[in-house]
Amino acid sequence: MLSNSSKYALKAVLYLADKTDISHKLMVRELSEPTQVPKAYLAKLLQALSKHNIISATKGPKGGYFLTKENRELPVFRVIEVIDGNQRIESCVLGIDECNAAHPCPLHEYVSPTRTALLSTLKKMTIGELALDLKKGTSFLSR
């Protein structure tokens, strides 16, 4: 349901939420290793996220990427929406373009309720809420 790009972007955003603030920023090279995302790929994702105000960035010698209080209050779904758009996460799991409730594929009735619940959760849950789990140690991004 999620592209590699969205997975990488979510990992980067959550890492930033866990490790940064206005006084402590990270550069792409500092994010690449712990998130296991190639630098060039990560740079493109971070630029897109910054452009859409999902994350914050400053240029210069003390610059880098970070999350503000406002960034942390955004729903997790916004990251996916910026990177993939809505179509990928809402598309048929079998890749059938015509699949919908009126004309369902064989898996539609089984996947649709789960997808609806996941989308609802991702639209309600904030970046900061997920980052809190990282801080508590109840979840992790890498070993």
How would you describe the overall organization of this protein?
With 143 residues, this protein is mainly alpha-helical. The chain has helices spanning 4-19, 28-35, 39-51, 69-72, 77-84, 87-90, 108-124, 127-136, and strands at residues 56-58, 64-66. Strands 1-2 form a two-stranded antiparallel ribbon. A hairpin with a 5-residue loop joins strand 1 and strand 2. Helix 1 (4-19) packs across helix 3 (39-51) and helix 1 crosses helix 8 (127-136). The two termini are 25 Å apart. The mean pLDDT is 93.
Distinctive features:
single chain, 143 residues, mainly alpha, two-stranded antiparallel sheet, 8 helices, elongated
Per DSSP E runs of 2 or more residues, the count of β-strands stands at: 2
Number of helices: 8
Distance between the termini: 25 Å
State the major sheet: 2 strands, antiparallel
Q: Roughly what percent helix?
A: 55-70%
Structural class: mainly alpha
Helix/strand order: HHHEEHHHHH
Question: How many whole angstroms does the radius of gyration measure?
Answer: 17 Å
Q: DSSP strand (E) fraction?
A: under 5%
The main sheet orders its strands as 1-2
